[in-house]
């Protein structure tokens, strides 16, 4: 009679998985380069989802599903019951023409992985590969969520949550490669981490006419200019200086000729906040201000305001745990103190259903000229960041399964 084999401790399992992550690195880079060469826009990730599905289908022990036409979910059940951990990767690209001259440059004009989602997908494919090979030693379930459409409201996350991908999930984790942070660093913000990105549009209608006879017109350009200036005072004069808020007017469209006062002017922009009360106050104040100015000058306005994703709020206890995991895995020097960012992320949709932590993984490298901002035509990542992201997720997932 043979003695039953004792399950290895979580520590041994992490050590063996981290060792296995090393030789997998070239494969993760190859996946990333394939995805980078074949980017697809939000809600159009058909070939991407197919590719991800094919990679996952070759791995043992995964149950695959396609909750929406361009997403893929893989469930890995360990050998005995336990907790369920969801790991999310987003897969969509942006309508940007790539300006990098690299061998893996986008083959599609006007479409580019300019935010690093190709890297996120590859990292989580790597995680699925490693964990599926170790499924006999795992308890519980890991749910790999390959999400479509992070970049375009209403976003893919909400749809996947509605489709039930968070049912039974105890904790959810995800990451974002971050080009403004050096490769080799990880930043995890506790609490509010990314803002709610809301949008507004405003059409101001006056009365057009001859540019030489302004007194016979109601000039929407002059009025819209006052509106733009006045809107700046909402954040600077009406919001607590210690409460983060941004109001940016990003479009001002009016007129067709130098000698014509147009009939209308169009403004649009974005508001970013964390605080729920402030998030409802700002649009009310904007509308009151815009209507007041338009009234005063005899113009009318149409104002619309759309709520975007909820803010990303990292669970404090889980953040402390995963910060400790990152420190244990790489050494305390890996941790980069980060402040919240005013960018938005639909990872927040998953956090409505379970505590979650969204981490930033450094992907920039000044010495190699990898410094372009996200959403820039020269955006790129130092591919060593893929290995960092993979090792972080391996250690984090095993830690959470063990908890
Ligand atoms: Ni992104």
Account of the protein in words:
It is a single chain. The protein contains nine helices and 15 strands. It is α+β, with helices and mostly antiparallel strands and 403 residues long. The protein has two domains: 275 residues, Zn peptidases (Aminopeptidase); 111 residues, Alpha-Beta Plaits. Helix 1 runs antiparallel to helix 3, helix 1 crosses helix 9 and helix 7 packs across helix 9. The chain is elongated and about 80 Å long. The relative contact order is 0.19. The N terminus is likely disordered. The structure holds nickel (II) ion.
Number of DSSP strand runs: 15
Q: How is the CATH topology of the largest domain named?
A: Aminopeptidase
Shape: elongated
Count of DSSP helices? 9
Percent helix, as a range, is 25-40%
Q: Determine Rg (CA atoms, Å).
A: 24 Å
Properties at a glance:
Aminopeptidase; Alpha-Beta Plaits; 2 domains; seven-stranded mixed beta sheet; four-stranded antiparallel beta sheet; disordered N terminus; binds nickel (II) ion
